Task: structure prediction
Amino acid sequence: MLRILSAVLLLIVSISSLSATPPKKTKKGPCAASLAKCPVTGCGGNIDKNLNRQKNIRTAPSGAAEDMTIAEIKALDDPVIGFAKGGSREKLTALGEGKLIRVVALALVVRAGSKESCNCGLTGVANTDNHIVLIDPDDGSPSLEADEADSVTAEFTPRVRKRLPDLSRAELKPLIDAAPQNALRVRVTGVLMFDSEHSLGRHLIRHNNWESIQCSLWSTVLLARLARIPAQQTGKT
Result:
């Protein structure tokens, strides 16, 4: 009888341990009160301050923008041998990171970003990036489903959009939707950046993580104003 009672108690204890509700994970909130109080290195837990500083650059490189093609951007090294998260970005600078470039492309979609450490984990339209999927302008049958893996990204930060409201998703999306085959021919200017976070982890659909126009703080050509570039123009304008 004692053995049966012990077995029953053991069974009850086992079932109780299996059915116990696991502790709820506490969601982390923003680490700054506002974007204005968010440092250029961002904040949070295991972050790459050098990457965040590159995303939040505030000074334009001197000189004219260098014309690049989507193919040239995609041909840049990824992964970059010898580069590790949080390390010096000298190897990336040698490949072109930080230079002012200009590219003509087809824009297929503009997506709202999510909270990121560079924006101190803040949420909402006013505090998150816009990500624009760009492909080769000579693609005869553009398709988001077929072409996104071979695309590059134009990333416009919330700091940019406060100064350049034409870069908002609300302004750009209708232009893309109304374009032939939902592919808007655009020319954009900005800074070349290696998205090391998504190269070393948290991989995206795209094959290459060089971003064509990262953080265009001083964009001299607004997407919304160049929605209809003549087909013969390839970037040397």
